[in-house]
Design a protein that fits this description.
With about 190 residues, the chain is α/β, with parallel strands linked by helices. The protein is built from 5 helices and 6 strands, in the order H-H-E-E-H-E-H-E-H-E-E. Strand 3, helix 4 and strand 4 form a beta-alpha-beta unit. The longest helix is centred in the C-terminal third of the chain and has 19 residues.
Length: about 190
């Protein structure tokens, strides 16, 4: 098998990432000369056991039930970090892990409009549950929450250079939901 360098495939016009004349300027500071924006990294955040209920569901999901949630988050950038050449240094994701732990580690999630919210608030006041109130408690709502809140943290930490492109929220090995966004779509 022959492997061609980016320069060889671009010169031959066969590079999948080849773009117009402006691409030469953008490619100059990236490994292999690939255009900026072609780079992303993923990080798995798991071991987040929590419970929730979907009160408006007419099936069993209306009852309090729990899962060990996990989130696979894809971080993207238009420009690599000039000092490291990384999309993002994984050590910088400690704040994201702490954020997810506060929201999902051994917590009870209740929707803002849950008619039993006062009961859950009373249970929290008595120390029976560690309550978090969210717009939507299902995996779709969790994915949106991670996109928004972790995206805000990453944007602040990188001066807006890095954003979250995709969040896959998993409640078990069989079920997941994926939320994707372009750079301009990452804040609701």
């Amino acid at each position: 098998m022959t492997t061609h360098t980016h320069a060889q495939t671009a010169a031959a016009g066969t590079c999948a990432c080849a773009a117009g004349e402006d691409a030469a300027t953008t490619r100059a500071a990236t490994p292999g000369g690939h255009p900026a924006g072609a780079f992303s990294v993923t990080k798995l955040f798991d071991d987040l056991p929590c419970c929730h209920r979907s009160w408006a569901h007419d099936g069993k999901c209306r009852f309090l039930h729990g899962y060990e949630r996990s989130f696979e988050v894809e971080f993207a950038c238009a420009e690599l970090d000039p000092a490291t050449g990384f999309v993002i240094d994984f050590s910088a994701l400690k704040n994201v892990r702490a954020l997810l732990n506060r929201q999902f580690d051994h917590t009870t999630l209740v929707a803002e409009n849950d008619p039993e919210r006062p009961l859950f608030e009373e249970l929290a006041a008595r120390g029976v549950v560690d309550l978090r109130v969210m717009e939507h408690t299902g995996m779709e709502g969790a994915a949106a929450w991670v996109m928004d809140e972790a995206g805000r943290l990453i944007g602040e930490a990188t001066g807006g250079r890095v954003w979250i492109r995709r969040v896959e929220a998993r409640e078990c090995r069989k079920n997941s939901v994926t939320l994707t966004a372009d750079r301009g779509d990452t804040r609701r």
